[in-house]
Amino acid sequence: MSLLAAGPSPSPTPSESPAVVVPSFQDAQESATNAASWVQQNWSTWLAIGLKVLLILVISVVLRAVVRRAITKLIDRMNRTVQAADGPAGGMALGSLLVNVERRRQRSQAIGSVLRSVASFIILGTAALMVLAAFQINLAPLLASAGVAGVAIGFGARNLVTDFLSGVFMILEDQYGVGDTIDAGVASGEVIEVGLRVTKLRGDQGEIWYVRNGEVKRIGNLSQGWATAGVDVTVSAHVDLDRLKATLDEVSEKMSREEPWNELLWGPIESLGLDSVLLDSMVVRLTAKTMPGKSLTVERELRWRVKRALDAAGIRIVGGTTVIPEEDPDADPTAAVAPPSVYSNSGSPQVEAASPIAPARPGR
User: What is the pTM of this model?
Assistant: First the structure.
């Protein structure tokens, strides 16, 4: 019994939890002293970093606002300058014929938007890099990764970049605008929307074409400057030229005085003379400068008036290079008919004499 009592004490069961060590007041005082000393040693560094970051953010925001405001004022000043040049002192200046107020407004908004976006991206991107550098973050891996990612994205989205750059230069150079009728090679029609990546056209049949700006290699703008209307009049070679010229001049002068053709015609209708002379026909060409996009309308009206005037004057219009000669009413209609042949009658002696000899039957 004494040996059992003097033996080692039994170990605690697993269900019993170890004793919780409660930090003493002296330990807490040491921890607070260490924290205070660390803050005292580094507060100046963190304060300098915070002030530096704050200064970078303030300068970037102010600079961005100043640059955006300067861009807006520059675009407005350009618009006022063009409007002054197209005012009453300028008369019928070419600029007033090329670009209207709405188109100028849309173009200035697009240019201003692009410039403001580029300026914001540059300023804020530079500020972000400066903030990271203020925290002593190594920017070399970040810049290297961004460079590799930029190259990969550039190869993958090269068509998108091409479309965007083409749209920017198209807007800056004012190649076309909303309301213009253009021939873009891949499609043609009236421009109903201009974007930095895609231009939307409405075709002659009402269809809508979405043309990528990077795919356009050439642009034919049919709404800038003036258009040319040309009408070819083909008459018989025996028509009196003086009489024909007088009739065409009368039609041209009358059409130039009437409304609304006097506004659509930007120049007199001129007769360029004989465009071609053949054995049985000749072609006289009429031409005139018209309002942009109205050449077909003027050509249709001019053809209508020329046809009515020539019919009234008794001048015959031919329809091609080869003219069927007029028939003589006194000529004998059977003169050109060949006489019947004796070979046309199957019972005539000539047909019987020309018939092949039948072969002899065998056994005879």
Answer: 0.50
> Can you tell me the distance from the alpha carbon of 334 to that of 276, in angstroms, rounded to the nearest whole number?
37
- Dihedral over alpha carbons 157, 161, 166, 171 (to 10 degrees): 130
3-class SS of residue 37: helix
Q: Which of 282, 295, 171 is nearest to 227 (CA)?
A: 295
**pLDDT (mean) for 284-301:** 87
- C-alpha distance from residue 1 to each of 9, 11, 191, 231 (Å): 15, 20, 113, 139
Q: What's the chain's Rg over C-alpha atoms?
A: 47
- β-bridge pairing 270-277 and 281-290: antiparallel
Distance CA 157, CA 316 (A): 64
- Output the DSSP codes for 154-190: HHHTHHHHHHHHHHHHHHHHT---TT-EEE-SS-EEE
Q: Are 187 and 211 in contact (CB under 8 A)?
A: yes
Query: What does the alpha-carbon distance between residue 81 and residue 77 come to, in Å, rounded to a whole number?
Result: 6
Residue range 236-248, pLDDT digits in tens: 888 888 888 888 8
Residues with Cβ within 8 Å of residue 101, at least 6 apart in sequence: 83
